[in-house]
Amino acid sequence: MTFLNGITNLTNWMGNVIMPTVAGLFFALAVIRYARGYPHQYIAWSGLMCLMISGLLRGIEKFASQAAWNNPDLIWITLLGLVNWTCDVFMPVYAVLQVLQGVLAFGGVGHRIYHGMPWIRHFAAAGMALALSGLVRLAEFFVRRGVGGIS
Amino acid sequence: MQLINDGIGVLLGLAPVAALVALVLAGMALRNQSSLLQNSRFGLWMFWAVVMLTLPQILSWFSGFGVPVPVSAGGGTALLNLFKVDVTNFVNQFVVGYFAPVMAAWLVLRGVIDVAEGRNPLYSILGAMFLLSIASTQALLQGWNSGTKFATADVLAGLWTYTVSRILPVAAGLAIIGAVLNFAFGKPAMRLICCGAAFLTVSALWRLVLSMM
User: Fold this and answer.
1) Which of A33, A51, A145, B89 could join A38 in a cystine, given CB atoms 3.0 to 4.6 angstroms apart?
2) Is B186 on the interface with A (CB under 8 A)?
3) Alpha carbons A51 and B196: distance in angstroms, whole number
């Protein structure tokens, strides 16, 4: 019995067993909070991130291994990689999302048809509650596809 | 004079046993402080464990100062040897073999209570793991003993390298898990993400500080 084995197994168990299981709970909570009209987006994102614990760690490892471990510039290179990724990868994806939102807003979604209206909210929440397993599987599908990177 | 020499020999022979006790106290301090290095209780007991394991090498400094010290462990009268064997058996069989696992079990229970009280159970769990791995930790520390006058610093350097290269990359995973949970419950998450990145680059941080000097 070594401390390293213990902490390694604890991390693996938390990251690969418990967090993906808790993801389903977070999606359920997101649907309930949406139905009640409370802020719900952060907990839905949390559910998605619960499925990506390994990926998030690998991402940070990738940023932190761009140079030799004994290179004093590694801190700067890590930060530079993070900034580059944010500007070159994340922001273009964010731009696409904004264009999509703009098109939807132009079509009236958000003011003429507002997804926060009580009747839409309740019907949507009912649909999502009935399709919760499917939503979790969809999130898992996206995470699994993400392993190959953006293409 | 011979009695004093015998006493020194017995005490030196008991130094590894004292190191085991120091490691048990370090494990208990790990839970009580809720931090590895803050307030230094855990660090203090780890330091004493290292000192006990390298005591003969530390005493060898006195030879360099012109004060010869009988650094060999063991010897002495039958009574003193019996005392040494009894203390060693007590620590190995009771403190490490029985008491530490029981305390580890109590720390796991304490972790559950921590959750009920709204505190983080991680340090109780880590403390329990540390208590369960006392013997292997001591063997690890002894493995870094170079046997020279600088053995204490060598063991501390080995401990630093081991922590940075083996423990902290795993702890980075725990930091990410903590960040996601904090984000879910509306607590600050960004500092844990930064912490995870820092855990993976501690060696480079050290090199950076060195290059700035």
Assistant:
1) A33
2) yes
3) 18
Over residues A92-104, the pLDDT tens digits come to 999 999 999 888 8
Are A49 and A22 in contact by the 8 Å Cβ rule? The answer is: no
Among candidates B133, B183, B208 on the partner chain, residue whose Cβ is nearest the Cβ of A46: B183
- CA neighbor of A3 nearest in space, from B59, B47, B61, B136: B136
Return the amino acid letter for A85. Answer: W
- Taking the C-alpha atoms of residue B97 and residue B103, their distance in angstroms, rounded to an integer, is 11
Q: B197 contacts in A (CB within 8 Å)?
A: 60, 63-64, 78, 82
**Calpha distance A80→B206 (Å, rounded):** 19
Q: Is B125 on the interface with A (CB under 8 A)?
A: yes
| Per-residue CA distances from B14 to B96, B136, B171, B181 (Å) | 15, 18, 34, 46
Nearest by CB to A74, which of B133, B177, B204? Answer: B204
Q: Tell me the three-class secondary structure of chain A, residue by residue.
A: CCHHHHHHHHHHHHHHHHHHHHHHHHHHHHHHHHHHCCCCHHHHHHHHHHCCHHHHHHHHHHHHCCCCCCCCCHHHHHHHHHHHHHHHHHHHHHHHHHHHHHHHHHCCECCCECCCCHHHHHHHHHHHHHCHHHHHHHHHHHHHHHCCCCC
| Mean pLDDT per 10-residue interval, chain B, length 213 residues | 72 83 87 62 87 85 73 66 82 87 90 85 88 89 87 91 90 90 86 89 88 86
* Packing angle, helices B41-53 and B151-162, rounded to 10: 130
Cβ-nearest to A7 among B170, B193, B205:
B170
Residue B76 is predicted with a pLDDT of 63
Contact at CB, B204 and A60, closer than 8 angstroms: no
Burial letters B194-205, b for 16+ CB under 10 A, else e: ebbbbbbbbbbe
